[in-house]
Specification:
The chain is built from 2 helices and 8 strands. By secondary structure, it is of the alpha/beta class. The chain is flat and about 85 Å long.
Protein backbone atom coordinates (compact mmCIF):
# COMPACT_ATOMS: atom_id res chain seq x y z
CA UNK A 1 0.00 0.00 0.00
CA UNK A 2 2.81 2.39 0.90
CA UNK A 3 4.60 1.52 -2.33
CA UNK A 4 1.58 2.43 -4.51
CA UNK A 5 1.17 5.79 -2.73
CA UNK A 6 4.80 6.72 -3.36
CA UNK A 7 4.51 5.70 -7.03
CA UNK A 8 1.36 7.81 -7.38
CA UNK A 9 3.15 10.75 -5.72
CA UNK A 10 6.12 10.56 -8.11
CA UNK A 11 3.85 10.18 -11.14
CA UNK A 12 1.92 13.26 -10.03
CA UNK A 13 5.16 15.15 -9.46
CA UNK A 14 6.40 14.12 -12.92
CA UNK A 15 3.16 15.32 -14.56
CA UNK A 16 3.34 18.62 -12.64
CA UNK A 17 6.96 19.24 -13.76
CA UNK A 18 5.96 18.40 -17.34
CA UNK A 19 3.12 20.91 -17.29
CA UNK A 20 5.46 23.56 -15.85
CA UNK A 21 7.98 22.83 -18.61
CA UNK A 22 5.29 23.18 -21.31
CA UNK A 23 4.15 26.48 -19.78
CA UNK A 24 7.74 27.78 -19.77
CA UNK A 25 8.20 26.73 -23.41
CA UNK A 26 4.95 28.45 -24.41
CA UNK A 27 6.06 31.66 -22.69
CA UNK A 28 9.43 31.59 -24.51
CA UNK A 29 7.83 31.03 -27.93
CA UNK A 30 5.22 33.76 -27.41
CA UNK A 31 7.78 36.36 -26.19
CA UNK A 32 5.70 37.01 -23.06
CA UNK A 33 8.35 35.96 -20.57
CA UNK A 34 10.75 38.76 -21.44
CA UNK A 35 8.20 41.57 -21.67
CA UNK A 36 9.17 43.49 -18.56
CA UNK A 37 9.05 47.04 -17.26
CA UNK A 38 12.69 47.98 -17.70
CA UNK A 39 13.52 51.62 -18.26
CA UNK A 40 13.04 52.40 -21.95
CA UNK A 41 12.14 55.01 -24.54
CA UNK A 42 9.99 54.95 -27.69
CA UNK A 43 10.83 55.35 -31.37
CA UNK A 44 8.39 55.30 -34.30
CA UNK A 45 8.73 53.78 -37.77
CA UNK A 46 6.22 53.73 -40.64
CA UNK A 47 6.00 50.88 -43.14
CA UNK A 48 3.94 50.21 -46.25
CA UNK A 49 3.63 46.53 -45.30
CA UNK A 50 4.51 44.93 -41.97
CA UNK A 51 3.68 41.35 -43.01
CA UNK A 52 3.16 39.25 -39.87
CA UNK A 53 4.88 41.62 -37.45
CA UNK A 54 3.24 41.57 -34.00
CA UNK A 55 3.29 43.49 -30.75
CA UNK A 56 6.17 42.21 -28.54
CA UNK A 57 8.23 41.14 -31.57
CA UNK A 58 11.93 41.79 -30.97
CA UNK A 59 13.96 44.73 -32.22
CA UNK A 60 17.60 43.95 -32.92
CA UNK A 61 20.83 45.66 -33.89
CA UNK A 62 23.63 43.41 -35.18
CA UNK A 63 21.66 40.42 -33.88
CA UNK A 64 21.39 41.76 -30.32
CA UNK A 65 17.88 42.29 -28.94
CA UNK A 66 17.59 45.90 -27.78
CA UNK A 67 13.84 46.21 -27.37
CA UNK A 68 10.37 45.12 -28.38
CA UNK A 69 7.46 46.45 -30.42
CA UNK A 70 4.98 48.12 -28.07
CA UNK A 71 2.16 49.09 -30.46
CA UNK A 72 1.07 48.76 -34.09
CA UNK A 73 -1.55 51.06 -35.60
CA UNK A 74 -2.70 52.24 -39.02
CA UNK A 75 -2.43 55.76 -40.46
CA UNK A 76 -5.64 56.34 -42.49
CA UNK A 77 -4.25 59.47 -44.13
CA UNK A 78 -0.97 58.06 -45.46
CA UNK A 79 -2.11 54.41 -45.71
CA UNK A 80 0.85 53.13 -43.69
CA UNK A 81 1.38 50.99 -40.63
CA UNK A 82 2.80 52.88 -37.64
CA UNK A 83 5.07 50.77 -35.45
CA UNK A 84 5.99 52.04 -31.99
CA UNK A 85 9.19 50.52 -30.67
CA UNK A 86 10.20 50.37 -27.02
CA UNK A 87 14.01 50.50 -26.86
CA UNK A 88 15.91 49.68 -23.65
CA UNK A 89 17.30 52.88 -22.12
CA UNK A 90 20.90 51.67 -22.22
CA UNK A 91 20.78 51.81 -26.06
CA UNK A 92 20.21 55.54 -26.48
CA UNK A 93 22.89 56.54 -28.99
CA UNK A 94 21.44 55.78 -32.43
CA UNK A 95 22.28 58.32 -35.15
CA UNK A 96 19.40 60.24 -36.75
CA UNK A 97 19.90 58.42 -40.09
CA UNK A 98 19.30 54.98 -38.55
CA UNK A 99 16.88 52.88 -40.61
CA UNK A 100 14.58 49.95 -39.83
CA UNK A 101 13.96 46.77 -41.83
CA UNK A 102 11.53 43.92 -41.23
CA UNK A 103 13.09 40.44 -41.43
CA UNK A 104 11.92 36.87 -40.85
CA UNK A 105 13.71 34.52 -38.45
CA UNK A 106 13.48 30.89 -37.50
CA UNK A 107 11.45 27.96 -38.70
CA UNK A 108 8.19 29.41 -37.43
CA UNK A 109 8.68 32.56 -39.51
CA UNK A 110 8.69 35.04 -36.63
CA UNK A 111 9.19 38.55 -37.94
CA UNK A 112 11.28 41.17 -36.21
CA UNK A 113 12.69 44.65 -36.83
CA UNK A 114 16.40 45.11 -37.38
CA UNK A 115 17.85 48.60 -37.01
CA UNK A 116 20.63 49.59 -39.39
CA UNK A 117 22.81 52.15 -37.65
CA UNK A 118 23.62 55.31 -39.60
CA UNK A 119 26.63 57.62 -39.40
CA UNK A 120 25.26 61.05 -38.41
CA UNK A 121 26.72 62.91 -35.44
CA UNK A 122 23.30 63.70 -33.89
CA UNK A 123 21.32 61.04 -32.02
CA UNK A 124 17.64 60.10 -32.05
CA UNK A 125 15.59 61.47 -29.16
CA UNK A 126 12.70 59.64 -27.48
CA UNK A 127 9.60 59.82 -29.69
CA UNK A 128 11.55 60.45 -32.91
CA UNK A 129 10.55 58.77 -36.17
CA UNK A 130 12.90 56.67 -38.27
CA UNK A 131 12.76 57.99 -41.82
CA UNK A 132 14.34 55.24 -43.97
CA UNK A 133 12.42 51.99 -43.54
CA UNK A 134 12.21 48.76 -45.55
CA UNK A 135 8.89 46.93 -45.46
CA UNK A 136 8.49 43.17 -45.08
CA UNK A 137 8.92 40.95 -48.11
CA UNK A 138 5.69 39.04 -48.63
CA UNK A 139 6.27 35.67 -50.24
CA UNK A 140 2.91 35.69 -52.04
CA UNK A 141 3.74 39.01 -53.76
CA UNK A 142 7.13 37.73 -54.93
CA UNK A 143 5.61 34.52 -56.33
CA UNK A 144 2.85 36.52 -58.03
CA UNK A 145 5.36 38.85 -59.71
CA UNK A 146 7.44 35.89 -60.88
CA UNK A 147 4.42 34.06 -62.33
CA UNK A 148 3.15 37.24 -64.00
CA UNK A 149 6.54 37.90 -65.63
CA UNK A 150 6.70 34.28 -66.84
CA UNK A 151 3.21 34.63 -68.34
CA UNK A 152 4.25 37.82 -70.15
CA UNK A 153 7.35 36.09 -71.57
CA UNK A 154 5.23 33.27 -72.98
CA UNK A 155 2.64 35.69 -74.42
CA UNK A 156 5.29 37.75 -76.24
CA UNK A 157 6.31 36.38 -79.68
Amino acid sequence: MLHSKSVAFFVGLFVFVGICALFFLAMQVSNLSSFNDRESYHLIAKFENIGGLKVRSPITVSGVRIGRISNISYDKNNYEAIVEMRIDAEYDTFPTDTSASIFTAGLLGEQYISLNVGSEDEFLAPGDELELNQSALVLEEIIGKFLFSRAEERASP
